Amino acid sequence: RSIKTSTYGIMFMGTPHQGGSGVPLGKLLVNVASVFVAADDRLLKHLERDSETLQQQLGQYGQISGEFMTKFAYEVYKTPVAWGSSIMVVPRASAVLPGAADAEPIAIHTDHINMVKFTSKEDNGYETVSGHLQIMVQSAEMAITLRWNKEARISSEESFSIVFSLSEVYETEHFVARNEMLEAMHNTLSHSTNRQAVTLHGLGGMGKTQLAIAYTKAHRHDHSAIFWLNIKNKASVKQSYSRIAERILQEHPSASQLGGIKDDSPLDDKVAAVKRWLEYSKNTHWLMVFDNYDNPKTSGNTIPGAVDISEFLPKAYHGSIIVTTRSSNVSVGQRIRVGKLKDVRDSLQIVSDSSCRKGVIDDPSAIELVEELDGLPLALATAGAYLNQCSTSIADYLRLYRTSWEKLQRTSPQIKSYEDRKLYSTWQLSLDHVMQQNRNSAMLLRLWAYFDNQDLWFELLEEGSNDGPKWLRQITEDQLSFNETVRVLGDYGLVEVAKSTIGVEVGPVGYGMHSCVHSWTIHVVNQEWDGALADLAMKRVGNHIPYESTPRYWVTQRRLLRHVERCWGFCMLTLYIFNSLGVLYAKLGRLKEAEEIYEMASEQEKILFFKTVNNTGIVYADLGYPKRAETMYQEARQGFEELLGRDHTLTLETLHNLYLVYKSQRKHVEAAKIYQQKASREKDICIRRYSAAKTPLLSRY
């Protein structure tokens, strides 16, 4: 290594940078010595005050002085000379170099001759000099190590540098920086000269690839070469290695590690050659990005075509690696989960940039839209691309998103940065993998479409599952079975633990999914309406509504509310469809079919439905929503009266609930009316029962 690179600090001990006062005396002594031996005073001439040689040297050192820690020691006392006189051999003005960067003068309380002569460790001069040296030594190791690493990198880049290119991947034009994640990646990948790796994992469409691109652009000068590989399967990663071999040979035709490699060489030979080049001991500052590692070969993955990334990693323990994957089972180096954008302003910026519309940031409809899309970059970019090519208002786009989700996604423009994927198809690969690993997990995904997207827990599905289909009984056989089913979905980022149930006394931990994924389960995973699954969801919610005697019943009621609201919409739709079909068949004269349709909506099912409606009213009342509760009770009352009669127990119970909710709203007139109806009917029931009891047994038959 060079001396300059390996030098941290310099201490000058009485050095006459601008000449010394003792030069005339030195010349006299040289002249005396020449009488006896040959003597030369040329050195002394260079040490004369302000000599040309000294000035030249001072200028040279001044240019590089900032690269060293410099200490200038000078004598404080004059040095005795012949004939009883004394002189300041190197005065402070000459010993301390003016203009030197990062420099410090040090006073040595002795004369010039004794500046480096110390009687003991307790000597004042020794303590001064050694103290400064120790300070420099403490800082030298880290500083010199960094210089050596930089020198090695520069030397490496001269032999192994490859021009930076992103030709293997599509880059978004409007990337919203995730500075915290970029910093976390840099902290890991720049930690040492050994092999460093980062795995970016998360739901498809979260922007893992774009995050990796942003990192490579920001730190392109930290690496001698950056290579991008598509590892979705073995064929694609081998093709990526083939293109890398072409780039290396193009810029380094004499690279010995790739000797004999030609355009028609087998792909396996090209992979081996590139790995040899990457493994070379002097080639240590490359970065490889393995993108789309979504089908990893693991102990639990039996999917055909699964890839073992270790087969394609260089064996040498140097270089840097980034892996992007949907699978949470991949753990190459430090794992970083890429989640949704948390700041609404970032989401608005994506829509604004991709739509090329002004005023998006302050548009209330835009704010409502990005809240609906919940920080998913792919969904935001898709919305922006659609708005860029259509004159549709943002408010109309939001309406279409809610009412015509699948058709809207299919007709939206292609997003180049997401290859050939759209929002409706981006999770299909994950679903295919889920189905091959655990079909029950795929069925749970279908069922989830009929619940709310947040807070689904084991006990909710377990309630009354004995009368459910076989796959549901298997899922809810016990907590471990449920956990395994959900784990498979979590492996691909489709579901995660609901944050609202972590660290809070809400009961069992629940799971949730992104709102866009939930829309996908409704419109794509369930291509058609499935009445059986909708019925399963309604029954689970209805059966799980707790009694007031249940401990912390209000917590369960609050958790159920979002699922109640989800079920309410389609359970009304189900009865409406049955009724409409029956009317249609009857009008067409197809009475047999009409009868069959009406039998499908049997009396018992209707009774169960109105029980659920009544229980929903109880939940609303307990949660402080009396108007919603009143609507539920009125609906249940009307249904029970038509199905069971005015005097049935369920009808009277609903009347009582309606009385209570009127009373809580201080609707005293309505409350009194309901109370009188209930009392009158109960009186009639008592009279009939009393009369029946007095009638002889024979006549009652």
TrEMBL record:
<dbReference type="InterPro" id="IPR011990">
    <property type="entry name" value="TPR-like_helical_dom_sf"/>
</dbReference>
<dbReference type="InterPro" id="IPR027417">
    <property type="entry name" value="P-loop_NTPase"/>
</dbReference>
<dbReference type="Pfam" id="PF13424">
    <property type="entry name" value="TPR_12"/>
</dbReference>
<dbReference type="Pfam" id="PF13374">
    <property type="entry name" value="TPR_10"/>
</dbReference>
<protein>
    <recommendedName>
        <fullName>NB-ARC domain-containing protein</fullName>
    </recommendedName>
</protein>
<dbReference type="GO" id="GO:0043531">
    <property type="term" value="F:ADP binding"/>
</dbReference>
<dbReference type="InterPro" id="IPR053137">
    <property type="entry name" value="NLR-like"/>
</dbReference>
<feature type="domain" description="NB-ARC">
    <location>
        <begin position="179"/>
        <end position="331"/>
    </location>
</feature>
<dbReference type="InterPro" id="IPR002182">
    <property type="entry name" value="NB-ARC"/>
</dbReference>
<dbReference type="Pfam" id="PF00931">
    <property type="entry name" value="NB-ARC"/>
</dbReference>
